[in-house]
């Protein structure tokens, strides 16, 4: 491998690397050879480097690296820059500028899978790894600076000068003097995946007996047809689904439903708010015939015990056939199969696939996730014992998986809906709109032992024509389970295109996830506006626009202030948006551009007036 060392003072660090098997060292410094050789021990280190076959280059500016190497010699596997400094009494701002130019220069000479190692004195980096940690404005803000050039911080470890044979730090304030390196840290940066270019995507699907195409909502473009549940997938959601199915098959005769649930539904879901649905307009000339529309509607509408029927604008009334939406649940497909008599009593039927729901932005709220739906028709009077068997089996499998991954047993509880005291997460809240729920399945792990709802249990006696049978169903959010079992703090990581995510789960093995992007920088922007007179503000649409414009880079949306103007009654809202990526570089300039686009979009699509 080719290793480039920059800013060498006396070349003692470079000399410690020379002779390593399979490594070609290129050691450089900013000074001329005459100046560098005058430092204590430098001449000896330079001779040792040259004798070992290493290259030694002088007068190298770390901000213009491609000027010193021919195109065929620019693919360095590692670049080291230990204790960079502008010299003399340069402050934090100048040193940030130095690092910014250095990282941009590195991007031009680093191999695709290469690493950039930067050692800084204790406190300089400005990350939580520094102890004590400086105030942000008084640090070099190395992670944010590197993000501007497309790099993410993947590792941090102590810089152990005493373990480097022959190493002696020098260069304090551009002099041949040593400086304190106690508590110093080595920061290892890697290339980020490039920014997503979300071009419009059309999708073809079956609707009734006819194939139709539609344009995928932009916020879902990178999440449609990802194939996480396919046979050749190593994704943890598939592993968990297979493990749960294997466990359930020990207690029930089990059948995986191989037919693909319809991606597109017609009409609407009774009791479900229109703002929680991804509404779709078919491509021109794609609308099915009236007969096909009626049949499709009969096959896909899920009844509810609650609420009035409303159209997409919130008006009460009957379903409107020309309305289409992405499936928010597998329940309608299961309902259609039950009504057709496709389910065998006593056999546990398993359906799985991605479902789509508009929702607010939180770390655990997902516009798309993988649902596993298990359905069982049992004799009336045995439903309670079957529910208990079902839940016990799921609890045993989940507990076993968590203990294998983390070494500890999680807290798994089945809570009755009537006595559920915790605040519902978005998954559970939406499930409540779909129909009556008897139990919530909650999994609690440190630091949240109280539990997060990952599943709901229903019993529905009136779904079958037979008065002898009762349908028991359990809907599980596989993405939430994967997050809890593998220690993934942000749902977006499940959908990353960075290969380093799936590399942590070889052959479908579940492991505790280790983030490859540490301490990602965050950027806060406020937006204040007047709401259109006489209209209810659609906060879910506001959050969805933030998702779309930022490419899922907004992690928090908080209402900071609500003001009503005396006399006119006009209402003003102020929101605070926090931009942060979990898997790729996000610089301050890119976040500012997203905020400007977002301001334009909310004016155009929500009719607000900016303040």
UniProtKB/TrEMBL annotation:
It is an enzyme of class 6 (ligase). One of its GO terms (cellular component) is mitochondrial matrix. Coiled coil: none annotated. It comes from the Eukaryota. The keyword Cytoplasm does not apply. GO terms for biological process: rRNA base methylation; translation. This is phenylalanine--tRNA ligase. It comes from Oreocharis arfaki.
């Amino acid at each position: 491998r080719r290793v480039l060392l920059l800013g060498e003072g006396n070349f003692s660090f470079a000399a410690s690397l020379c002779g390593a098997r399979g490594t070609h060292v290129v050691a450089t410094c900013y000074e001329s050879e005459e100046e560098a050789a005058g430092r204590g021990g430098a001449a000896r280190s330079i001779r040792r480097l040259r004798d070992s076959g290493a290259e030694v280059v002088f007068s190298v500016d770390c901000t213009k690296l491609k000027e010193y190497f021919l195109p065929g010699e620019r693919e360095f596997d590692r670049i080291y820059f230990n204790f960079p400094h502008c010299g003399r009494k340069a402050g934090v701002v100048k040193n940030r500028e130095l690092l910014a130019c250095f990282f941009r220069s590195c991007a031009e000479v680093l191999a695709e899978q290469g690493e950039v190692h930067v050692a800084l004195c204790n406190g300089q980096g400005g990350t939580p790894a520094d102890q004590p940690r400086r105030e942000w404005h008084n640090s070099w803000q190395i992670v944010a600076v590197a993000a501007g050039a497309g790099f993410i911080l993947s590792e941090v470890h102590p810089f152990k000068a005493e373990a480097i044979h022959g190493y002696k730090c020098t260069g304090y304030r551009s002099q041949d003097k040593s400086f304190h390196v106690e508590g110093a840290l080595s920061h290892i940066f890697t290339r980020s995946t490039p920014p997503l270019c979300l071009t419009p995507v059309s999708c073809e699907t079956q609707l009734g007996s006819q194939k139709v195409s539609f344009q995928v909502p932009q916020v879902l473009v990178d999440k449609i047809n990802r194939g996480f549940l396919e046979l050749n997938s190593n994704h943890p959601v598939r592993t968990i689904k297979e493990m749960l199915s294997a466990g359930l098959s020990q207690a029930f005769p089990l059948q995986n439903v191989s037919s693909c649930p319809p991606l597109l539904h017609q009409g609407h879901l009774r009791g479900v708010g229109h703002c929680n649905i991804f509404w779709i307009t078919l491509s021109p000339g794609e609308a099915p015939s009236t007969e096909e529309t009626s049949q499709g509607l009969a096959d896909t509408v899920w009844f509810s015990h609650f609420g009035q029927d409303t159209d997409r604008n919130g008006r009460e009334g009957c379903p409107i056939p020309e309305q289409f939406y992405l499936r928010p649940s597998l329940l309608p497909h299961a309902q259609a199969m039950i009504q057709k008599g496709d389910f065998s009593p006593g056999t546990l039927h398993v359906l799985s696939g991605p479902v789509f729901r508009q929702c607010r932005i939180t770390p655990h709220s997902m516009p798309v996730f993988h649902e596993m739906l298990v359905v069982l028709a049992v004799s009336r009077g045995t439903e309670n014992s079957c529910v208990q068997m079902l839940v016990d089996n799921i609890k045993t499998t989940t507990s076993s998986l968590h203990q294998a991954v983390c070494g500890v047993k999680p807290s798994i509880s089945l809570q009755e809906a009537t006595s559920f005291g915790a605040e519902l997460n978005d998954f559970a809240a939406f499930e409540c709109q779909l129909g009556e729920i008897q139990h919530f399945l909650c999994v609690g792990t440190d630091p949240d032992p109280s539990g997060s709802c990952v599943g709901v249990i229903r019993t529905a006696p009136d779904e079958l024509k037979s008065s002898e049978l009762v349908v028991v169903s359990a809907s599980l959010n596989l993405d939430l389970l994967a997050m809890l079992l593998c220690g993934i703090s942000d749902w977006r990581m499940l959908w990353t295109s960075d290969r380093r995510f799936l590399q942590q789960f070889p052959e479908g093995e579940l492991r505790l996830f280790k983030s490859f992007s540490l301490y990602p920088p965050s950027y806060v922007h406020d937006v204040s506006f007047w709401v259109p007179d006489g209209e209810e503000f659609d906060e879910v649409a506001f959050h969805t626009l933030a998702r779309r414009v930022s490419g899922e880079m907004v992690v928090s949306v908080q209402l900071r202030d609500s003001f009503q103007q005396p006399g006119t009654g006009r209402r003003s809202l102020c929101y605070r948006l926090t931009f942060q990526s979990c898997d790729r570089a996000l610089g301050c300039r890119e976040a500012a551009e997203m905020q400007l686009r977002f301001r334009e979009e909310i004016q155009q699509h929500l009719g607000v007036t900016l303040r």
